[in-house]
3-isopropylmalate dehydratase (Acorus calamus), 507 residues
Amino acid sequence: MASSTIISRSMPFTTKKEINIPLSAPSPISLSKCKGRVPWKVVAVMAPAKSPRDPSTTGSVKVGMTMTEKIFARASERTQLVPGENVWVNVDVLMTHDVCGPGTIGIFKKEFGENAKVWDREKIVIIPDHYIFTSDERANRNVDILRDFCMEQNIKYFYDIKDLGNFRANPDYKGVCHIALAQEGHCRPGEVLLGTDSHTCNAGAFGQFATGIGNTDAGFVMGAGKLLLKVPPTLRFVLDGEMPNFLLAKDLILQIIGEITVSGATYKTMEFVGSTIESLSMEERMTLCNMVIEAGGKNGVVPADQTTFKYLEGKTSTSFEPVYSDGGARFQQEYKIDVSKLEPVVAKPHSPDNRALARECKDVKINRVYIGSCTGGKTEDFMAAAKVFLASGKKVKVPTFLVPATQKVWMDLYGLPVPGAGGKTCSQIFEEAGCDVPASPNCGACLGGPKDTYARMNEPQVCVSTTNRNFPGRMGHKDGQIYLASPYTAAASALTGFVTDPREFLQ
Ligand code: SF4
């Protein structure tokens, strides 16, 4: 294994490690071959390195802090913190949804009293999104429980749905919680957002500390407005280089998870910086942060900048104060990635770190494509898929399901022109390509859901999906095979019926 460029930085690190990206396979890879790891060669170097010593915890000398440490410090009213400390953190926003909300409410009432009031009716956001468009009575009942509780507590932000037959008849209804949180202005730099969903880390894109918690913790936060949390150490990922036009943020995060594995960031912050990150839109930054939990990360975080502030314009009237890592902040490891050298990747069944180049799986025959979820069901994700369909001028060869994350995304599909498409919208391009009509916005089959969930995998099929998890059973059938991919790769695969590198259509 040979190393290439090693980027040195004047930071307090003493060791360096090479980063690898997949080597192209000399021969086509069959499905069975794809079950193993691919060989590697070094074409870019990340340089993780250990701090020479643990940060000081005593004395009067103030040491630099990372973004996440600073958010923890402010939220716990401390001036200095180091990783590993347990502190009571004041919470700015608590989010829950129809799957975990009823359990959270039950714990809140059990521990604080049947007639107790929530700590702040304006800081709790309740979003039905998971099992919505179903006749499953227990799923429907969960939404009813949320509604009753929100009325009882006069919760300010409850994005209700009553008419399941037509989501557009419900102006308050949003859709997938993580994207709704962003679109409704609940993601603000420097704040603390906790949610009863592991992908709450999505909001780290805004320079916010955002993480998933369990129902018990959420029940406590509901009553007390704070939570005892351990300060995580930070891994810093420096992504530089021009992003090739066939890559999306999904490729970047799958690349990173493939490198550090699904446990590589366990209870750690993943901080993303560098010129490539600065060039990403907010939706792409969300894709990146959304999947840090797939590496075990406590949270992901991107420094707020003009892109962030512009996105927030008109979305919130709450003032916020961004924080940034100090020059002398201590990172447990730092990784450098030259994005210009990367290729489209997928995560093969059944783990998000089971990385392979898309082109190495070109012999993997697929039965369906799914474009949706908080990871891959945003407006830009559909725009990217439409771009591939448009460039090909062909029709899809397998059923292609489209599930917009939110009501706003759904409207964008019908209202926004796709750049370079002569005024055509995504919905027109999808129709011409033979895709299914965009479905009602919700989590859909990302999490399987009740049997009657739209696009649920009820057969042991092979699916290319823009979602974030490919564990056995995740999309419905326990023997289903899920290849996680970018919207570019998903659309290209739909056009061929095989896992396909989008460069076949984009160059
Ligand atoms: S879209 Fe999927 S990953 Fe996102 S919140 Fe819903 S079920 Fe979870």
User: Anything to note?
Assistant: The first helix runs from residue 67 to 75. The chain has a mean pLDDT of 90. DSSP finds 15 helices and 19 strands in the chain.
